[in-house]
Each structure stands twice: as C-alpha cells, then as structure tokens.
Amino acid sequence: MKPPNVRKFIPAAMQNRLNALTDACRAALPGPDRSMAVGAGMFLLLFLMFFGLHLLCAKGVSMALTHLNEKGPVSVTLRGVESAAFPPGMLASECLIHNGKTGALARIGNVTIRPSLTALFSGGFGLSLHGTMAQGSVDAVLRTQSFTNLKTLRLSATVDGVRLKKLLLVQEHFPVLDGVVSGRGVLDTSGNGALDLHAGLLKTTFEFPALSGYPIMGGKLAATFANGVMQVDELRLQSGADFQINVRGTMRPQWSNQPDAVLNLAGTLRAPAERIVPGPMGAKINPGKDTRFTLQGSVAAPKYVFE
C-alpha cells in the first residue's frame, strides 16, 4: 500500500518553502548521506507540523466555543467528539446551535472540523467546518480578525440545498414556510456582515388579507449587516411574470420569546386579479401592475399600508 501523498494537502506557498529548505539541507550535507538525512528531516518536520495542527484544532475549537457562548447571542454545543485521523482535526456527530430565549435554532450533523490554512496564511487563526444540515450541506470558516485580535470572530458560510421545513428555527417559529435555499453569508461578533441567498420551490401558507394564497415561488435575498441591523438591499419573491413581491429597507433583529425583528420596509406587489381578495385592502391593489406598500411593526405583528 502506497503511503499518502501529504504534499497535496499543503498550500503552494508552504510547499515552496519546504522545497527551499530541502535544497539548503542537501547543499549542507555530505553526498552519500544527503538523501537519508533530508528524508528523515522532512518526516520529522511534517510530523511536528501535523501534530501541532491537531493541538491547534482542539485548542481553537475550545477557545471559539467559549468566546461564542459567553459573548454571542447563541450558544454552540458539540456532541460525539473524536479526533480525525488525517488530515488533522476532529469529528462530531452533531453541532447544536441554541439561543437561551428562543430555543434550538439549527442542527448540523456529521461535522468535520479542521484548522483553516486559508485563515492562517491571510493573517489570522481559523477553523473550517463541513457538515449536513436540513437535507443540505454547510461549509463554514470561523476565524479571528488577526493574529493579535482574538476577540473579534468572523464566520463565513456557504449552504447548499437546505430545506427550510427541516430547519429547527423554521419548524419551531415559522412553520408556514418551506423551500430549498442555497447561498453564502458572512457575519462577525460585532454584528457586521453580508448575506446572499437564493431559494427555489418556495411555499407558504402565510395569511395576508388581500391575497387568496400564494403560488410556488423562487426568491432572492441580498442584505448587509451593520452593528446588528440588517439592511435589505433586495428581497424578491416571484412566480412567472404575473406574481412578484419586491422589498427593501431595514430589519432590526430582536431575541425575545421567539425570533423577531423591528421592520422598516417598503416595496411593490404585483398579483393577478384571481389572487386578489375583494375588500378595503384588496381594492388598493391594481391587478397585474406594481402596487407600492410599506411594511412596519414587527415580524410577529406586521403593519401593511398600500399607497
């Protein structure tokens, strides 16, 4: 059985440095003993490096969880933890993300955590995570702002094929939603970041007095975060050309007995005549044309005003 080619796991920049070190060793050693000595030296160097990465991963996970659980709005618990053989890192059967007031938010299964060499070579310490979530997958990197600033953590994540109905957060607090979501986001512990999500097969049974139900829709959300406030740059829900909702504005998340947010949004609604319910609110919607509206209040108690 051939030994694993460890070089394929090493970034190009580090490979170049190892090659330079190898050449220097060969030049300094006498001819007959060069190959053996260099080989032993390289093996020792790689052993120390990967052993150090094992320790770094375990210590990094412990520090990151402690900081998140003390300072963040959520707590993170790892279950079924064991060491990963190669490359270095750790495995967990489950990662549970929880809020003390609202309960469980998300569950990630079959978790693999490894040191992030990308973060290391860009000026910080980091951990990469891969797992399954709600019939989809999630890949994330949790890293420090720099080598010296260990208090500010930044999470960047990519999700693919996540089923909304299978998310703990949706099951508990937004059971009227379903669909498949993919995209990416970045958020740090100061409340700054960005979000870019795409959704398909969106279904909802949300009751809106001016509409008699919703078609199956596609959707897009592009937003930024500044000090915890969410700026919605684009929120679009669409089914063909005759049904479309576009929204922009701000949302200020709140953590109480359930996830909520203070709304300050404005947008347009386009719906066919057969979906408009006769009444005071429905009378303000022009069938097949964009109708402007504002949305304030909160997610739990929204207030709509049509122009």
Which characteristics define this entry?
307 residues; 4 helices; Type II secretion system protein GspN; 15 strands; alpha+beta; 21% helix; membrane; transmembrane; transmembrane helix
Could you say which structural class the secondary elements and strand pairing correspond to?
A: alpha+beta
Number of strands: 15
Q: What is the CA-based Rg, rounded?
A: 25 Å
Q: How helix-rich are the residues, as a percent range?
A: 10-25%
Termini Cα gap: 74 Å
Mean pLDDT: 79
Protein name: Type II secretion system protein GspN
Organism: Pseudodesulfovibrio senegalensis
Keywords: Membrane, Transmembrane, Transmembrane helix
Transmembrane segments: 36-57
Q: How would you explain this protein's 3D organization?
A:
- With 307 residues, the protein is α+β, with helices and mostly antiparallel strands.
- The protein has a domain at 209-306.
- The chain is 21% helix and 47% strand.
- The chain has 4 helices and 15 strands.
- Helix 1 (12-28) packs antiparallel against helix 2.
- 17% of the residues are buried.
In short:
By secondary structure, the protein is an alpha+beta fold. The protein has helices spanning about 10-30, 35-70, 115-120, 170-175; strands at about 75-80, 80-85, 90-100, 105-115, 125-135, 135-145, 155-165, 175-190, 195-205, 215-225, 230-240, 245-255, 260-270, 290-300, 300-305.
Question: What's the structural blueprint in terms of helices and strands?
Answer:
Elements: H1 12-28, H2 34-71, E1 75-79, E2 82-84, E3 89-99, E4 103-115, H3 117-120, E5 126-133, E6 136-144, E7 153-163, H4 168-173, E8 177-188, E9 193-204, E10 217-226, E11 229-239, E12 243-255, E13 259-270, E14 291-298, E15 302-306
Helix pairs in contact: 1-2
Organism: Pseudodesulfovibrio senegalensis
Keywords: Membrane, Transmembrane, Transmembrane helix
Protein name: Type II secretion system protein GspN
